[in-house]
Design goal:
The complex is a heterodimer of chains A (538) and B (332).
Chain A: E1 2-10, E2 19-26, E3 31-36, H1 42-50, H2 52-55, E4 60-67, E5 70-71, H3 77-80, E6 84-87, H4 100-110, H5 115-128, H6 144-156, E7 162-166, H7 174-191, E8 194-198, E9 211-215, E10 221-225, H8 227-230, H9 239-247, H10 255-267, E11 280-291, E12 295-305, E13 309-313, H11 320-328, E14 334-339, E15 342-343, H12 349-352, E16 356-359, H13 372-383, H14 391-401, H15 417-429, E17 435-439, H16 447-462, E18 466-470, H17 474-480, E19 483-488, E20 491-497, H18 498-504, H19 511-516, H20 524-527
Parallel strand pairs in A: 3-8, 3-9, 6-7, 7-8, 13-18, 13-19, 16-17, 17-18
Antiparallel strand pairs in A: 1-2, 1-4, 4-5, 9-10, 11-12, 11-14, 14-15, 19-20
Helix pairs in contact in A: 4-5, 4-6, 6-7, 9-10, 13-14, 13-15
Chain B: H1 9-25, H2 29-47, H3 53-73, E1 80-82, E2 93-94, H4 95-121, H5 124-128, H6 136-165, H7 176-200, H8 210-232, H9 237-257, H10 271-293, H11 295-298, H12 313-320, H13 324-328
Helix pairs in contact in B: 1-4, 1-10, 2-4, 2-12, 3-4, 6-7, 8-9
Chain lengths: 538, 332
C-alpha cells in the first residue's frame, strides 16, 4: 500500500536532510508505529505519505514515495486526500469549520460529492464512530480527547484506505488516550485500514501494532520490524522496559520476563531517609477563579515548600493551567497568595516574576528572539540585569547547563520540541527565580528528553528550588514530585504524597504500581538514584 | 454570535459591500456618522457586548491621527486658527484642514466598524466555500490571509504574557518593535497550519475537467489581450473593452459552473435575506445615482472656507436602512 524507496528530503533553507535514505514497504491493512526522538523526522515522514511533502513545503527531495499506486511527486496533497486521511498533532488549530458535523462534511464537500451523498456519509460516520452525542456541538467546546476523535473521524469520512496519525495522544490524559487508541484499533481492524501512527510513548501502543519503524536523530531508519524484534534494540521504551533494564531483567517483556520483573519489584525496599522539605515558600488560601459561565476553579489551598516539587494532576479541562496562571498573576483571581510570607495578589506579573516564574504549554509564543543566546539576554534586559559584569559568563554557563551550547546561535523556533523547552527554561532560569511553575512541560517531548527533564527538576529541588508541575502524565509526576494535587472539574479531589495519591486512584496508577500492586516503587527513579555531577546533563 | 449567522452569508456580503462602497463615495460627515451608528447597532444586536474601553480608544486613535496629520501638513483653507513665527513648520494651521482630516478619519473608522461587524457575521469558511472550485490554490492562499488577523490577535496576547512572565513591564510605544516581529511570525505560522489542514482534507483539488480548464485559460488569454490592446491602441477602447469583458465572462462561467460543490448544510436563502440585500443594494444605488445627478448633496468640501455640511432627511433615512440587519435578528 505504501512504498517508500530511498527517500531523502531537505526542508527549504536548511542544509541537513530531515530524512535520509529511508526505505519502507507497508502492506495493505498493516498498522505501523513510527517512533524516534523529537526532531528525528517522524512528522516529516508522515508528510511525505500524505503529500504535503514536497508540494506544500517545497524543499529538495530524492527517491520516491508511492501510496496506493499514486506517486507523490506527481500528485499533490489535495489529490491524495481521497486515499490518505490525516489527523494532526494539534487538531484544534486545524479545524476549518465551527461545528462537529460540518467538520466531518468538509472533506466530502471538497471532494465534490452530491448533497444527498454527503449527508449519508456524515450520518454513517457519526453512527459508526459513535459520535452521536458530539455531532451538533461547537468544536471549540470539546475536550482534547473529543477533538482528537473528531479530527480522526473527519479524516475517515472520505473513506480513505490509509490513515496517518501524528501523535494522536500526546496532548491527552491517560484515560482519554486509552479511549482514543481503543477506538482507533477497532476501526482499523474492522476496515482493514493501513495505519501509520507516530508516537513517543511506546508503552500504550505496542500491543496494537504490526510493525515498528524507528528513526534516528539524523532522520535515518534505525530499525524496522515486528515490535518484539525492534524494541530491545531501541535505547528507550516504556516505563516497564526501563524498569527491567534498571533491575537487569531481560527487556523483551515476555510473560516470563514480566513475572520476574514483578518479583523483583516486590522484593524492593524503600531506602531509608528522604530529605525533609524546608520553609513554606508559596502559599495560596481560597484561590479561586470563575470564567464566564462555563468553567470555575473552586477555592484551592496549597503550600509549596523550599526544595519541594508539587505535581498538579487532572484530566483535560480540570483547571490545572488556570491554577498556575492564577498563581503567576496572569488571571485575576479570588483569595490570597503569599510568596515568602508576603501577600502578592496585588502585584503585577512583572513584579512577581522577580522570584516566581512560569513556562506555558507549547512554549512557542514564549520564544521570540533571533537566537537561543539572545533569548537569555532578552530576559536579563527585561529585568535590568544585563549590564552586570558577570552577565556574559552566566549566560554562557546557563547555555551549558541546559545543553544549548551547540544551538546557541540558532533560531529558537526551528528547534525540536525538547530543545525549545530547554531554551524556554534557560530563558526564565537565567533570572534566578526561587519558585518555578511548569505547565505540561513534557508535551511533545520524547521519553529521553522527559527523563532528562525529570533529572533536572530533581537536581533543582536538591539546590533548594521549589517547583510546581501541571501534567497529565502520571509517570512524569511520579518521577519528579514529592506531593501531588489532583484536580477534577475545577475542584481539589485529592492531595498528598505522590505515590500514595496515584495508587489510591486506580486510573492514575503508574505502570510499576499496576504490575506490582503496591504503592512503591512508583517509577524507575525510585529504583536507581541519580548519578553524575550537578551541572552536567548526561 | 449565533443570531448574526441566521442571515445568509451572501446577504451579508451584499450588505458589507454596499455599505463600504457608500462610505467611500460619501464624504458628508452626517451620513458617515449614521452609517457608523448603523454598523455599531448591528454589531451590538449580534453580540450583546458593550464596546470595551480598548475598542473606543482604537477608534478614537483612528480618527485623531488623520485629523492631526492633515492639520499639521495641509496649508490650504481660509480660516486660520494658528500661525507661528517659525519657517516651514509655522503654519498657517487652518480650520478647514482640521475638518478635512476629521472627515477622512471618520471614513476610516466607519470602514473598520463595517468590517468588524461583517467578520463577526461571516466566517472565513463561509467565504472559502464560495470561492469557485477552479481556483483551488488561490483559495488556500485566501484562507491563510483571512485567518491571519484573528490569529494575530491571539498571538499578541500570548507574546505580551510571555514578556511579562519574563519580567518585562509594558512601556508603550517603545515596546512596539519587540512585539511586532514575534507577532508576524506566530500569526503566519498558525495561518500556514490551517492551510496544511485544508490541503490534506482535499480542499483545492480541482473538479474541473481538462476541457474546462482549457476554456478558463482561454478566458485569461482573451482578457490579457484586451488589456494589451487598450494599452497599445487607446483610440479603439471599445474593442479592447469588449475583448476583456468577453475574456472575463468566459473565465467566470467556466470557473463557477464547472463543478459546483454541494454543501452538507446549505445556507437557506429566506425572504429576510432578500430584504436585507435589496435594502443595502438600494441604498448603494440611490447614493450612486445622486453622485451623478447632484454630487453636492453627498460631498462635503471644507475648502476653501469651512461651512456646515448639508443635511437632507430623505438621505439620512436612506442611510439608516443599513441598520436593517439589527432589526431582522428580532424576527428569529
Amino acid at each position: 500500500m505504501i512504498e517508500i524507496n530511498r527517500l531523502t528530503y531537505t526542508y527549504p533553507h536548511t542544509d541537513r536532510p530531515a530524512l535520509a535514505d529511508v526505505s519502507l514497504h507497508i502492506d495493505a491493512g498493516q498498522t505501523v508505529l513510527l517512533t524516534g526522538r523529537s526532531g528525528s523526522g517522524k512528522s516529516t515522514l508522515l508528510g511525505a505519505v500524505n503529500g504535503l511533502i514536497p508540494h506544500y513545503y517545497g524543499g529538495r527531495i530524492a527517491g520516491r514515495v508511492v501510496v496506493g499506486g499514486m506517486d507523490t511527486r506527481d500528485h499533490k496533497a489535495h489529490d491524495l486526500a481521497a486515499l490518505v486521511g490525516t489527523a494532526f498533532q494539534e487538531p484544534a488549530s486545524r479545524f476549518i469549520t465551527r461545528q462537529v458535523a460540518d467538520e466531518l462534511a468538509f472533506g466530502l464537500e471538497a471532494a465534490g460529492l452530491g448533497g444527498a451523498e454527503i449527508a449519508r456519509r456524515v450520518r454513517e460516520t457519526v453512527e459508526r464512530l459513535h459520535l452521536g452525542p458530539l455531532q451538533d456541538r461547537p468544536l471549540d467546546q470539546l475536550s482534547g480527547g473529543e477533538q482528537q476523535r473528531v479530527a480522526a473521524a473527519a479524516a475517515l469520512a472520505r473513506q480513505p484506505r490509509v490513515l496517518v496519525l501524528d501523535e494522536p495522544t500526546s496532548q491527552l490524559d491517560a484515560e482519554s488516550a486509552q479511549g482514543v487508541l481503543d477506538w482507533l484499533r477497532d476501526l482499523c481492524r474492522a476496515d482493514g485500514l493501513t495505519t501509520l501512527i507516530s508516537e513517543h510513548r511506546l508503552g500504550r501502543l505496542l500491543p496494537e501494532v504490526d510493525r515498528v519503524a524507528a528513526l534516528s536523530e539524523r532522520g535515518r531508519l534505525e530499525a524496522w520490524g515486528a515490535p518484539a524484534e525492534v524494541l530491545p534494540r531501541l535505547p528507550y521504551g516504556g516505563p516497564l522496559i526501563e524498569a527491567a533494564r534498571a533491575l537487569g531483567v531481560p527487556a523483551g517483556l515476555s510473560d516470563v520476563a514480566l513475572r520476574e520483573l514483578r518479583e523483583r519489584l516486590l522484593a524492593w525496599r524503600l531506602p531509608p531517609g528522604g530529605a525533609a522539605a524546608g520553609e513554606v515558600r508559596l502559599a495560596a488560601r481560597g484561590l479561586g477563579f470563575a470564567f464566564g459561565k462555563g468553567f470555575e476553579l473552586h477555592p484551592v489551598d496549597l503550600d509549596l515548600r523550599q526544595g519541594e516539587a508539587l505535581a498538579v494532576l487532572g484530566g483535560n479541562g480540570s483547571g490545572k493551567t488556570t491554577l498556575l496562571r492564577c498563581l503567576m498573576g496572569l488571571l485575576a483571581h479570588r483569595g490570597e497568595v503569599r510568596l515568602e510570607g508576603e501577600r502578592i495578589e496585588g502585584q503585577p506579573v512583572a513584579v512577581r516574576a522577580r522570584h516566581l516564574t512560569y513556562v506555558p504549554q507549547w512554549p512557542s509564543a514564549f520564544l521570540f528572539a533571533d537566537t537561543v543566546r539572545d533569548e537569555l539576554w532578552t530576559t536579563l534586559r527585561y529585568r535590568g540585569l544585563h549590564s552586570q559584569a558577570h552577565a556574559p559568563a552566566s549566560v554562557e554557563a546557563m547555555l551549558r547547563v541546559f545543553r544549548l551550547g551547540e544551538v546557541a546561535g540558532r533560531y529558537p523556533r526551528d528547534l525540536s520540541a525538547g530543545e525549545r523547552q530547554r531554551t524556554a527554561l534557560a530563558a526564565v532560569m537565567i533570572a534566578g527565580p526561587t519558585c518555578v511553575l511548569l505547565d505540561e512541560p513534557t508535551l511533545g517531548m520524547d521519553s529521553a528528553s522527559q527523563a532528562q527533564l525529570a533529572r533536572r527538576i530533581r537536581r533543582w529541588k536538591r539546590s533548594g528550588l521549589s517547583v510546581m508541575v501541571a501534567t497529565h502524565d502520571v509517570e512524569f509526576a511520579a518521577a519528579v514530585s514529592d506531593r501531588a494535587l489532583v484536580l477534577e472539574r475545577g475542584r481539589v479531589a485529592a492531595v498528598g504524597d505522590t505515590a500514595q495519591v496515584l495508587f489510591d486512584r486506580p486510573e492514575l496508577r503508574t505502570a510499576l504500581q499496576r504490575l506490582s500492586g503496591r504503592e512503591r516503587p512508583a517509577c524507575v527513579s525510585d529504583l536507581v538514584t541519580d548519578t553524575g555531577g550537578e551541572d552536567a546533563d548526561d | 454570535m449565533s443570531g448574526a449567522r441566521t442571515q445568509h452569508p451572501v446577504a451579508w456580503m451584499a450588505w458589507a459591500a454596499s455599505a463600504a462602497a457608500v462610505v467611500l463615495l460619501v464624504r458628508n460627515p452626517w451620513y458617515l456618522l449614521l452609517i457608523a451608528a448603523a454598523a455599531a447597532a448591528v454589531r451590538w444586536r449580534a453580540t450583546g457586548e458593550r464596546p470595551t474601553p480598548g475598542t473606543v480608544r482604537a477608534f478614537a486613535g483612528l480618527m485623531v491621527f488623520p485629523t492631526l496629520l492633515n492639520f499639521l501638513f495641509s496649508r490650504a483653507g481660509e480660516t486660520v486658527l494658528l500661525e507661528l513665527p517659525v519657517r516651514y513648520i509655522g503654519g498657517p494651521y487652518t480650520l478647514e484642514a482640521l475638518l478635512f482630516g476629521a472627515t477622512a478619519g471618520l471614513q476610516l473608522a466607519c470602514l473598520l466598524m463595517l468590517m468588524m461587524t461583517f467578520s463577526l457575521a461571516v466566517s472565513p469558511t463561509d467565504i472559502l466555500r464560495r470561492i469557485p472550485s477552479g481556483l483551488g490554490p488561490a483559495g488556500i492562499t485566501a484562507s491563510i490571509a483571512m485567518n491571519f488577523a484573528p490569529q494575530a490577535r491571539r498571538s499578541f496576547e500570548a507574546v505580551r504574557e510571555a514578556q511579562q512572565v519574563r519580567g518585562h513591564t509594558a512601556r508603550g510605544f517603545r515596546d512596539l518593535q519587540s512585539i511586532v516581529t514575534p507577532l508576524v511570525i506566530l500569526s503566519l505560522e498558525s495561518a500556514m497550519t490551517v492551510g496544511e489542514g485544508l490541503a490534506t482534507r482535499g480542499w483545492g483539488s480541482s473538479v474541473l475537467s481538462s476541457r474546462r480548464r482549457g476554456l478558463a485559460w482561454a478566458g485569461v488569454g482573451l482578457f490579457a489581450a484586451g488589456a494589451l490592446a487598450w494599452a497599445l491602441a487607446p483610440q479603439r477602447a471599445w474593442l479592447a473593452a469588449g475583448m476583456a469583458a468577453a475574456g472575463a465572462s468566459l473565465l467566470l462561467i467556466t470557473l463557477t459552473r464547472g463543478g459546483t460543490r454541494s454543501r452538507y448544510r446549505p445556507d437557506v436563502w429566506r425572504p429576510s435575506d432578500t430584504l436585507m440585500a435589496a435594502a443595502a443594494l438600494g441604498v448603494l444605488a440611490l447614493m450612486a445615482v445622486l453622485i451623478l445627478l447632484a454630487p453636492a448633496l453627498l460631498a462635503y468640501e471644507p475648502y476653501p472656507r469651512a461651512a456646515w455640511p448639508g443635511f437632507s432627511w430623505p438621505l439620512a433615512l436612506g442611510a439608516c436602512l443599513l441598520a436593517l440587519p439589527a432589526v431582522l435578528f428580532g424576527n428569529d
